[in-house]
Design goal:
- The chain has helices spanning 4-7, 17-23, 44-57, 86-100, 107-122, 158-161, 165-173, 188-200, 247-261, 300-313, 331-338, 358-367, 378-385, 398-409; strands at 35-39, 62-65, 77-79, 82-83, 126-130, 147-150, 181-184, 204-207, 213-220, 223-229, 235-241, 282-285, 291-294, 320-323, 344-347, 372-374, 392-395.
- The protein has 412 residues and is of the alpha/beta class.
- It folds into two domains: 4-261, UDP-N-acetylmuramoyl-L-alanine:D-glutamate ligase (3-Layer(aba) Sandwich); 282-409, Mur ligase, C-terminal domain (Protein-Tyrosine Phosphatase, Chain A), CATH 3.90.190.20.
- It has an eight-stranded mixed beta sheet with strand order 4-3-2-5-1-6-7-8, with helices on both faces. Strands 12-13-17-14-15-16 form a six-stranded mixed beta sheet, with helices on both faces. Strands 9-10-11 form a three-stranded antiparallel beta sheet.
- β7, α8 (188-200) and β8 form a beta-alpha-beta unit.
- α4 (86-100) crosses α5 (107-122) and α7 packs parallel to α8.
- The longest helix has 16 residues, at 107-122.
- The two termini are 33 Å apart.
């Protein structure tokens, strides 16, 4: 199997023929319905996580497929909130590879079809599929779904998806199926593209802040309380413990889609069950009492959201930042969002996928007037980060955040 997530070759034939062949093979499982697909540049993982916990707390047996994984690929397929066991996954993957023969699927195609098989074997009540990249030619789009969510759109993966907001929005809007249901939190130019696509395929489109949304939010040290308006016109009080600002649109999208698909569900909103969101503004307290924040944010919008949350939680405090970034990203634009609040920056190598040269990043940071240094590897970077007496922030890649998390959990 070719792992395009990690290898990032210059050329890739983007189509659905490979995954469709696997889904239609003799003896293949019928994909579980109802099913929801989640696409977007920002917030799709958080939205999928809220779908999972809301559905589970409402009494549904959920199956959730997400990416990337932090430690083990079994994290990508969850049933009833638990990662699939390796002894369950191995025979499914082996069967797919035997069938494929000399036409092996990509890593993501194989994992996607494995999720379909595992959800069917367990007869889950709701299947949730998070898009890996784009939408139109993502492997998850070969699966029939009942609703498709497009979160927010920003410039990302421009080498594959296009170099304008409109082009990227068109790729992601394609997850909204003919005659289906779409929900979106996009705005401006991206929303216009999503609307046009929905009209073209005669799909129902529900737009955040028009057909559903979050209102009258009151923040406290315990979380956020407010009202959720749902597509049926009702308003329900919610309380999200330990809320982050970026979570509220995801909560609204998840609640709106579940209430639209299954209006009989009693959604648990006061309080909302907290999803497990590793490396999405994950706050750890270090042994010396200082906080360590782990976040996989690597785009301008996502890093802007991290900065907003840092300033809300730790006003007036400037963190030391540990970063590394995948090759081909708009890393200068992304890091420019963090520099105004950074005391200093440590740059290290990225493992697991091709990354930008740390020395090049460090030289650019110096040109911007930032204090920066290079660490030889992630462990060295964490040691340098821990020399700082103040908030410590890890951003730039889920691979980096996951590697630091593993070191922290190993008490290194």
């Amino acid at each position: 199997m070719v792992d395009y997530e990690r290898l990032r070759p210059k050329e890739r034939e983007w189509d659905l023929s490979g995954v469709e062949r696997l889904l239609r093979r003799k003896g293949a499982a019928v994909p579980i319905r109802p099913a929801i697909q989640v696409a977007g540049s920002k917030g799709k993982g958080t939205t999928a996580a809220f779908l999972e916990v809301l559905g589970t707390a409402a009494g549904l047996r959920t199956g959730s497929y997400s990416s990337p994984h932090l430690i083990t690929l079994c994290e990508r397929i969850r049933i009833a909130g638990e990662p699939i066991r390796v002894e369950r996954l191995e025979p499914v993957l082996a069967g797919l590879l035997d069938f494929a023969g000399d036409q092996p699927p990509t890593f993501f195609e194989a994992m996607t079809v494995s999720a379909v098989e595992c959800f069917a074997q367990d007869q889950v009540d709701l299947a949730i599929y998070e898009v890996g990249l784009g939408g139109r030619f993502d492997a998850t789009t070969a699966i029939d779904v009942d609703a498709a969510i497009v979160t927010r759109i920003e410039l990302e993966h421009t080498d594959v998806l296009g170099d304008t907001i409109a082009a990227i929005a068109a790729e992601k809007a394609a997850v909204i199926r003919p005659g289906g249901i779409g929900l979106t939190a996009t705005t401006g130019e991206a929303l216009a593209v999503v609307r046009a696509h929905a009209q073209q395929v005669a799909a129902e489109l529900l737009v955040m802040d028009e057909d559903f949304g979050v209102h009258h939010v009151d923040w406290s040290s315990d979380g956020a309380r407010g009202l959720l308006s749902l597509p049926d016109g009702t308003r329900q009080q919610f309380f999200l413990p330990d809320a982050k600002a970026f979570e509220l649109p995801a909560l609204a999208l998840a609640a709106a889609s579940l209430s639209r698909l299954q209006p009989e569900l009693a959604l648990p909103l006061d309080p909302v069950p907290r999803p497990n969101l590793p490396c999405r503004f994950e706050v750890r307290t270090e042994r010396d009492g200082h906080v360590l924040i782990l976040d996989g944010a690597h785009t301008e919008d996502s890093l802007r959201a991290v900065v907003v949350e840092m300033q809300r939680r730790y006003p007036g405090k400037m963190p030391c930042v540990l970063t590394s970034l995948a090759a081909g990203k708009r890393w200068k634009e992304a890091l420019s969002e963090v520099l105004p609040i950074a005391d200093s920056v440590v740059v290290t190598e990225l493992t697991g996928t091709p990354g930008e040269d740390p020395a090049t990043i460090c030289a650019w940071l110096t040109e911007q007037g930032a204090r920066s240094e290079v660490a030889t590897d992630v462990a060295a970077g964490l040691r340098k980060l821990r020399e700082y007496a103040g908030p410590r922030l890890v951003v730039g890649s889920f691979y980096l955040a996951g590697a630091v998390r593993l070191l922290v959990d190993s008490d290194v």
